[in-house]
Design goal:
globular, four-stranded mixed beta sheet
């Protein structure tokens, strides 16, 4: 299928699972979004974040994953083949291990990080923010690799994202969902 054909229809995980592994796609509310290869800086940031998270999670029950890793976000309790939203966040942490299976994660992760790329900025900052709030992702970080800031959304008691906080990368940044983990951004100066 061509990109244009994929964008004209609505798809489900059943369709997505049949597509070539040579192409990267995400589905959001049944709409297919092509994913371009990330830049070197994007990959260096994801690689370093993944390493810090891996080191922190050793011996703990939560699990962390870097893209490509499928996160299926069902609307209700529909079967996987009917799920119309499948995303591949840059970094994902899941503490409820019952959400994990051989296909990836089914349900909201506890923490998601998206590193902005020119092609995905609007989707990450608007579409995915709404999506992650709607599905109950407890903490969502948007990392701007060139401007060197991090926007942090956290769910409040009503299940809504509070106004985001924006932080520079000049000092470590602590998570709310994993309060004894702080991301050290010192590596950013070297990329």
């Amino acid at each position: 299928m061509s990109t244009a054909e994929k964008l004209e229809e609505r798809y489900t995980y059943a369709d997505y699972a049949r597509w070539s592994e040579d192409e990267s796609w995400e589905l959001i509310d049944g709409i297919a979004y092509a994913m371009a290869a990330p830049s070197r800086i994007h990959q260096e940031i994801v690689f370093e974040l993944g390493g810090q998270v891996r080191n922190y999670l050793q011996g703990k029950s939560c699990r962390g994953y870097v893209a490509p890793f499928d996160v299926r976000l069902p609307r209700q309790n529909e079967a996987d083949d009917k799920v119309d939203t499948v995303v591949q966040p840059d970094l994902t942490v899941i503490c409820d291990r019952s959400k994990l299976d051989d296909k990836g994660c089914r349900g909201a992760p506890d923490w998601i990080v998206e590193v902005l790329s020119p092609a995905t900025t609007l989707k990450d900052m608007h579409t995915k923010t709404r999506l992650y709030e709607q599905h109950g992702v407890r903490e969502y970080w948007i990392v701007h690799p060139t401007e060197r800031w991090v926007m942090v959304y956290t769910l409040d008691e009503a299940g809504k994202y509070s106004r985001p906080s924006v932080y520079g990368m000049d000092e470590p940044l602590a998570l709310q969902v994993l309060p004894d983990l702080s991301i050290d951004w010192a590596f950013v100066e070297q990329i």
